[in-house]
Amino acid sequence: MRKAPIAFARILGFNRAMRIFTAILGTETNTFAPLPTGLAQFEKIEPTPGGPPDEIKHPFAGVVRAARERALRDGHEVLVGRGGFATPGGVTTRHAYETLRDNLLADLKGVAARSISSRSACTAR
User: Fold this and answer.
1) How far apart are CA 17 and CA 44, in angstroms?
2) For residue 116, what is the DSSP state?
3) How far is CA 50 from the centre of its chain?
4) Which helix H or strand E contains 11, and what residues bound it?
């Protein structure tokens, strides 16, 4: 009988428990909207480290919740990244995008696998 951590790890080509990163970053951009989407418009999504997978209630969190559930069930360590989601608005400011991106990249150090839910309808200037 195989150990639980091996099941998920083998899918990704590993034979041991892993540190898996999850995060959410997204917005829906209306390029015709006159007001830009700044950092203040992003609702923070910062789950509790080691918290339950269903802690994230955001509608776009399905992928992250599923990854956390599977990883925890298989005995892996789950790391949560600082992310956010902004309601539909104008073009995202460069400052907002770069700040959120840099937060995620800083959180990614030393991680074997990543599950990032990113809503792709985002335009930044």
Assistant:
1) 29
2) E
3) 15
4) helix 4-11
State which H helix or E strand residue 111 sits in: none
Asked whether the beta carbons of 31 and 123 are under 8 A apart, the reply is yes
CA nearest to 81, candidates 65, 103, 51: 103
| Closest C-alpha to 79, from 118, 43, 46 | 46
Per-residue pLDDT reduced to its tens digit, 12-61: 666 677 777 777 888 888 888 889 999 999 887 766 665 666 677 777 77
Model confidence pLDDT, tens digit, residues 53-110: 667 777 777 777 887 888 888 888 777 777 888 888 899 999 998 998 888 888 877 6
Q: What would the DSSP string read from start to end of 57-108?
A: --TT-HHHHHHHHHHHHTT-EEEE--EEEEEEESPBPHHHHHHHHHHHHHHT
Question: Is the CB of residue 69 less than 8 Å from the CB of residue 76?
Answer: no
Which pair of tokens denotes residue 103? 């937060």
* Predicted TM-score (pTM) of this structure: 0.66
